[in-house]
Amino acid sequence: MPADAHPPAPSSLRQRRRAVATQEIVKAAELHITEHGSAALSLRAVARSLGMSVQALYHYFPDRNALVTVLIAKAYEDLATAVQTAADTTPSDPSVPRFVIAAEGYRQWAVSHPERFQLLYGTPLRSYAAPVGGPTTRAMQQMSAIFQRVLFGDFTAEQLAAADTPALSPPFRAHLEQLSPDGLAALPPRATALLLSGWGHMHGLVVLEVFGHTAFLGGHQAEIFHLAMRDLLTDIHRRIPAGHASGPG
Fold this sequence. Notes:
Elements (H helix, E strand, L loop, with lengths): L12 H24 L6 H8 L3 H4 L6 H25 L9 H15 L1 H8 L13 H18 L4 H5 L8 H8 L11 H22 L10 H18 L11
Helix pairs in contact: 1-2, 1-6, 4-5, 4-7, 5-10, 5-11, 10-11
């Protein structure tokens, strides 16, 4: 360690207690959403479940929006962790591509945590707007980065730039090129269009299931999702010209 480098100072007892209390509030809020839905979330209800006054809760979260932002960011992070864990797991069938496994991790988290998934992708909460460039945006970018890797990680930038897609209008191409370099702008515009289209297909099937619109399939919903994701991957990869890709992804 350099002579002028110092380890971070340990947190104080007050800081540690605040961190513990904040975690308890977030867990109580998640439980409230699970039991009553995100629309019913209020600081008063969360405080009541913890046996504290709403005035005391204000010391940790100044308003409902601050708590919602933390809940959304945490849900995104938990979903991203589930997707990454799935993608890193060695499949029992080695022929299953990582993208398909990652997509199935996305679906499994959503159907296991439907209320938290609806907090992310359901009806927007009244009077709530996520802070621009805040933790919810960064968490979303983390999710996007995972799917970029499992979908396009075996292809070069040149291959992705030459993907076979319908011609993009100049305004749309310019918009894609101006996105944050930490997000979709890391991809050529044609690859971005493929990623967004593929994500819409994958996410749409999950939304239909979480909201009960594919219940008529019974226990076969996982199978139809698996087949759809394999077909989706095949379609996307056939649009990318052959080159020095190392594998099917």
